[in-house]
Amino acid sequence: MGKKLLIHNDHVPNIHTLDVYRAHGGYASVEKALKTMTPEQVTEEVKKSGLRGRGGAGFPTGLKWSFLAKPEGVPRYLVCNADESEPGTFKDRYLMERHPHALIEGMITASYALGARNSYIYIRGEYFYVHRILEKAIKEAYAAGWLGENILGTNYSLDLHMQIGAGAYICGEETALLESLEGKRGNPRIKPPFPAIAGLWGCPTVVNNVETIAAVVPIVNNGGEEYAKIGVGKSTGTKLISASGHINKPGVYELELGLPVEEFIFSEEYCGGIRNGKKLKAVVAGGSSVPILPAELILKTAKGEPRLMTYESLGDGGFITGTMLGSGGFIVMDEDTSIVKNLYTFTRFYHHESCGQCSPCREGTGWMEKILQKFINGTANESDVDLLWDIQSKIEGKTICPLGEAAAWPVAAAIRHFKQEFIDIAKKKKFDDVSHYSRLNKNVVA
Amino acid sequence: MKVTIDGIEIDVPKGTTILQAARMIGPKVAPPAMCYYTKLKTSGGYCRTCIVKVTKGSTANPTPMPKPVASCRTEVMDGMEVQNFTSPDLLEARKGVVEFLLINHPLDCPVCDQAGECHLQDLGYNNGSVKTRYEFKRREFDMIDIGKYIKLHMTRCIMCFRCVKVADQITNNRVHGVMHRGDAAEISTYIENVIENDFSGNVIDVCPVGALTDKTFRFKQRVWFTKPVEAHRKCDKCSGKVRLWFKGEDVLRVTARKDQWGEAEDFICNDCRFEHKRKSDWVIEGPSPISHHSVISQNQYEHLNEKEVEILKHQKALGFMNYDKRP
């Protein structure tokens, strides 16, 4: 049984209320930080912990905090990125739904470390009911004196604001999020300057993922060194993984980084194996934008070592034979799944969510979708595979924000590992969807 | 600060962008730019045609940049080394960007008023492919009426955002902007609205394509059959320094004067642009500097006197409006 730090109180009834949360040790990190530590000491603990951003990029959180500019007389902001919209990722929702106070506690402690007087939680529009849960929890926290003026009688004051987005994936990109938070169109900004220098309203800002902020709580409570003991190498601590797809037990799991992928998929404690006794075909390990890997490469690296759930092990082999831990959106596909159809779905998503600012993404995502539509219609030619490859290579790395890469990587990986599937469709001029889903919908008139 | 672009070193002040530094060296190394506009703050970064490869970040940190960068929005560092026309990978990447800009462009150049002075035409000529690989229906938009002076033909737009920035920075009220997103994004007014203020006509000059054209000039004449002449008048709203486009003795069009990079030297008011179309309204200064490579320069100045020819030669030597075919 792995150690749990974020959702260890999952079984406790009413853990979403302040009283129950407090009775189970909640808000201890705020007490410890505000009463016994300086902001620098909190940052130091986070650095020692080796915590890496849980939103997808995996950037060391302590380092990100230390980049924050601190000019005199200029406010600083902490913004929590709760715009979780990556297909396959739903871990932040789970955390906020069930443990809203864990996020609020983390926000207070982190805001104290960064010296923020006002902090924000930017939550995606589709999570409207989660917004309500959090609002309620914030009210409770205000009433109990955890937020507002002079928290715990210290001279630290913090106001926590919530802003609900309008349902755009692009607003999960940190500068687009800041634009949206400022009331503008959610377009990514051109960097530099980075938010650490000029973020929200031109002031120094740190944008962190929900899970990252929640992880600050155990780090402060137990010490950074204790946290760093969990995990392997530079992948420290625990990670929430949202497992979905053709597995027996889809859901959100907290695991110690370093767990073998094979154990995660097949053990009863986690995913419980592939459903209906089918074979594993492929896995998208970290949310829809990371490269898909076929079964043999997700279980073992190209060198034949067992693949572990860590940033390094999943990334082993680069994009040729590896992938990324990403946001932890673990999508499992069984032998009946059509990679082409799956790719079509992903590409349609990125086309729909492109903001339209820069040419490669605006035009390229739509073009790729149209070509993939040809495969679904059974009208594609073999040359279309090469064309797709070329288009994705011309989007990747040429765009303002990482959405371009997010759209290009799945296309590249699907062709890299499953080219034959594309060619078979092009040769047969027919697309046979034998997936469970399509069987279910056989009699449904579209 | 010293920066080397395509092997040519130049000393530039701090805060100079790679694009500006390249333009200082000259057209030989300057990347094309479709959305950047020197006079418009925060412009650039969108079209991605000006991308360059930074092979050495700076003397202090020589690591190359992992991805191509938008030269218009990246400031030079001391000791930076940049490749533009000397990097085959980069040229291939730029070709990709140009292809993206063209796949949904109607390519209706034969009936487009911008033809002959269109930056997308030049860009496509220099970097495009002969054949399109796009086999689907191209994007089309409905026409929107934005007033008596300007025609908005959104289908031709490449989303450079210049006209939005002109409205924000030059005029006193912006009534148009970007609606929708992704490849459905369009320049439009929120609830059909007329774009009308003293400086609205400048959106025509900054538009790199034929998306915003002058209604008083539309379909009057192909630009290469008109003769550009520099002229001025006393104007209390703007500098009054303009370029007149003659056909015979008639002024068909008034525009801002464009520099070597196709950017307006001075923004002009609507009064000068739309309401003064008689030769007698203006003090004529002489022929406009146009690159001899431009279609507009063809067969225009055979009647010039000796002095005018000298001026023109001098201006050509300076490389005005030079869109040479590049390697």
Task: Give the DSSP E fraction of chain A (strand runs of 2 or more residues).
Answer: 5-15%
Distance between the termini of chain A: 45 Å
Q: Which superfamily, in CATH terms, is the homologous superfamily of the largest domain in chain A?
A: NADH-ubiquinone oxidoreductase 51kDa subunit
Mean pLDDT of chain A: 94
Most residues in contact, chain pair and counts: A-B, 30 and 33 residues
CATH class of the largest domain in chain B: Alpha Beta
Task: Describe the structure in your own words.
The complex is a heterodimer of chains A (446) and B (327). With 446 residues, chain A is of the alpha/beta class. In chain A, 44% of the residues lie in helices and 12% in strands. Chain A has helices spanning 18-23, 28-36, 39-49, 61-66, 91-98, 100-114, 128-143, 174-181, 210-222, 224-229, 261-266, 295-299, 311-315, 318-321, 339-353, 359-377, 383-395, 403-428, 436-440, and strands spanning 77-82, 118-123, 159-164, 205-209, 231-232, 235-236, 238-245, 251-256, 280-284, 292-294, 329-334. In chain A, helix 7 (128-143) links the parallel strand 2 and strand 3. In chain A, helix 6 (100-114) packs across helix 9 (210-222) and helix 16 (359-377) runs parallel beside helix 18. The termini of chain A are far apart. The model of chain A has no long low-confidence stretch (mean pLDDT 94). Chain B is globular. The longest helix of chain B is centred in the first third of the chain and has 16 residues, at 88-103. In chain B, helix 2 crosses helix 3 (119-127). Chain B has 327 residues and is of the alpha+beta class. In chain B, a hairpin with a 2-residue loop joins strand 12 and strand 13. Chain B is built from seven helices and 14 strands. Chain B has three domains: 2-90, Ubiquitin-like (UB roll), CATH 3.10.20; 104-214, Alpha-Beta Plaits; 223-318, no CATH class. Chains A and B meet through helix 15, helix 16 and helix 17 of A and helix 2 of B.
